[in-house]
Design a protein that fits this description.
The structure is a homodimer of 225-residue chains. With 225 residues, chain A is mostly helical. The first copy, chain A, has two domains: 9-72, Winged helix-like DNA-binding domain superfamily/Winged helix DNA-binding domain (Arc Repressor Mutant, subunit A); 84-223, Four Helix Bundle (Hemerythrin (Met), subunit A). Chain A contains nine helices and two strands, in the order H-H-H-E-E-H-H-H-H-H-H. Chain A has helices spanning 9-22, 35-42, 46-58, 90-111, 114-127, 135-153, 156-176, 186-198, 201-223, and strands spanning 62-65, 69-72. In chain A, strands 1-2 form a two-stranded antiparallel sheet. Chain A is elongated and about 65 Å long. The structure holds a DNA duplex (30 and 30 nucleotides).
DNA sequence: CTCATAAAGTCATCTGATGACTTTATGAGT
DNA sequence: ACTCATAAAGTCATCAGATGACTTTATGAG
């Protein structure tokens, strides 16, 4: 169904070289083998090596000096921004989002206060059902509700990751789904808030999954068009 | 200090294309001209265009589909690094990690192959139980197992996020927990693999939570910050 | 109108060549 | 011996052409 290693040669080369860098095969400042050697080592053409090296340069791992060579700039990915995940497929992004939605709902159910519950109900009312109008705006309102659940969990890491994805997810959905938007499923959303109010993490978990399942199914239908 | 104009053609091509993307010359999902056209437009060779495009793909702006074309993935600045998430509390990072562990275990249970199951069993055997020796090394081996579960899910977004956190988590744990490491709980880990092999996502979910619960509890004891 | 198939379009990759720039080796002159 | 201009070698930068793989579109028989 889903190919795990369906990558191209340049990506493989990137990961191979990055692995060697992180594995301290070369120290910081040390020179890598020249392009012809890397080409032979990785069994890819020099052009492919260049594409890989240029990506690693853009990510701060390497540095090239014309006429001299290619050198290691950093052997750690500590400062590496989380940019690649954005390149993952929409399906992958959605699954990651689901993971956060579920866990945040659980945490919020445990850490809820009457105030947060009231806020969620208000956002849910504002969201309403999709009335056939501005689709992007509806997606925006829907996202606002889900973001609020994450925020209510109080987990700053999740909030940031969620923000990171939501923009690109919303963009892509609006551009991709056309008019075939899944049922708004207001009931499932209300169930989430109810479970949170009750303080039942398992039910909150289940409610989130009930909402997301049809969306994922719709995604699969659209992507395979 | 650095010469501002002393750039190579590929970098100029990157900035030219990125500028067009951010300037909304093409909408999200829209197709760019083919490589030959871009080559002509920018007055550089096709190889140089490919290097530029690959960098922009790695930064989340573009997406290439072999046989089809190159498409805009995001017209906003996708390079925003996730810095706050890394500074989030260890507890928050751990909860985010748990969210991914759980969902990845579910997905892997659904998408498993005999080969992945065998790989997980091997890693789990290598991990062993904590024998009081090098604690950082044990954490490393433990992390390798969990990373393998994520990788087996095939979800690239989750892999990225997990990598993003795991380094700092491992470091912090080793530095924080001292000798008060929770029971290795080999059984819970074996349960995860068993559930994956059986193809039971709910049980995989539960097994992961069984393993993480005591760790979170230990965390709370250690760090009341 | 349906659908299998051909044709065209596009990215992926390889090979070979030339130019630009840096580093190293050379050797004449002192 | 030492200096230093210069040649030689090494390496990245860029280009051009060709082939393969994959996707999309056009075609035509039924």
């Amino acid at each position: 169904m889903r190919a795990l290693s369906k990558t191209n040669l340049a990506d493989e080369a990137i990961e191979a070289i990055r692995g060697d860098i992180l594995g301290k095969r070369w120290a910081v400042g040390e020179k890598l083998p020249n392009e012809a050697s890397l080409s032979a080592m990785l069994s890819v053409s020099r052009g492919t090596v260049r594409e890989a090296v240029r990506v690693l340069v853009s990510q701060g791992y390497l540095e090239t000096r014309q006429g001299s060579g290619t050198y290691v700039r950093s052997t750690t990915d500590a400062g590496r921004p989380l940019t690649m995940a954005r390149r993952a497929s929409l399906r992958d992004q959605f699954e990651a989002r689901l993971a956060l939605d579920v866990e945040a709902a659980r945490l919020t159910a445990i850490r809820k206060t009457p105030k947060t519950v009231a806020g969620l109900r208000r956002l849910l009312a504002e969201r309403g059902n999709y009335d056939g109008g501005d689709q992007a705006a509806f997606i925006e309102r829907d996202l606002a509700f889900h973001k609020a659940v994450i925020a209510a969990s109080g987990n700053r890491a999740m909030i940031e990751i969620y923000d990171f994805f939501s923009a690109s997810i919303a963009d892509t959905i609006a551009a991709t789904l056309g008019k075939d938007i899944p049922e708004p499923d207001m009931q499932a959303h209300a169930d989430i808030v109810d479970a949170i109010e009750t303080g039942d993490p398992d039910e909150a978990d289940a409610a989130v999954r009930r909402f997301m399942a049809p969306v994922l199914a719709a995604l699969d239908r659209m992507i395979l068009s």
